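Example for tutorial group B:
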């Protein structure tokens, strides 16, 4: 840690991501001890989950500015999904709606599949479907705003 430094206290969110990217960029590896225990605190509702993932997306561009090596395509997919959703109504003007709705159909199929394979009861399946929408859209909007703020 002395060669890499500790957590970046300027970041409100994603301090752990930034620290991990710095470690890896210096050639270090993370050690996961199977004896280590942790507690996960889930959010009480979709609004709280939305705020959490919005903040994750909001601070991710700042993390990338500090440690560019942490970028991966998966970080940009929710952002591109939100841009796609924002542009979708415009496609109606150009009579391209049927062509451009195909990615949304695929997203819904994948969301439905994973939501229904992860839960045992109907309420869990419905809630899982909403959770996937929530985290992807919240992170994507946060990322979009984070990119604008980063400049």
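The residue assignment follows.
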């Amino acid at each position: 840690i002395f060669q890499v430094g500790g957590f970046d206290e300027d970041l409100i969110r994603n301090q752990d991501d930034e620290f991990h990217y710095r470690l890896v960029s210096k050639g270090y590896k993370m050690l996961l001890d199977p004896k280590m225990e942790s507690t996960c605190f889930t959010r009480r509702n979709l609004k709280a989950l939305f705020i959490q993932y919005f903040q994750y997306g909001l601070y991710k561009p700042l993390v990338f500015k500090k440690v560019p090596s942490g970028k991966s395509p998966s970080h940009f997919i929710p952002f591109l999904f939100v841009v796609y959703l924002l542009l979708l109504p415009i496609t109606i003007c150009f009579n391209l709606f049927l062509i451009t709705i195909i990615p949304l159909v695929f997203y819904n199929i994948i969301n439905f599949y994973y939501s229904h394979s992860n839960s045992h009861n109907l309420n869990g399946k419905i809630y899982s479907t909403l959770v996937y929408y929530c985290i992807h859209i919240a992170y994507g909007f946060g990322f979009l705003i984070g990119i604008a703020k980063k400049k």
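The helical segments are 15-25, 46-66, 73-93, 97-100, 102-118, 122-150. Compare this with the pattern of hydrophobic and polar residues in the output above.
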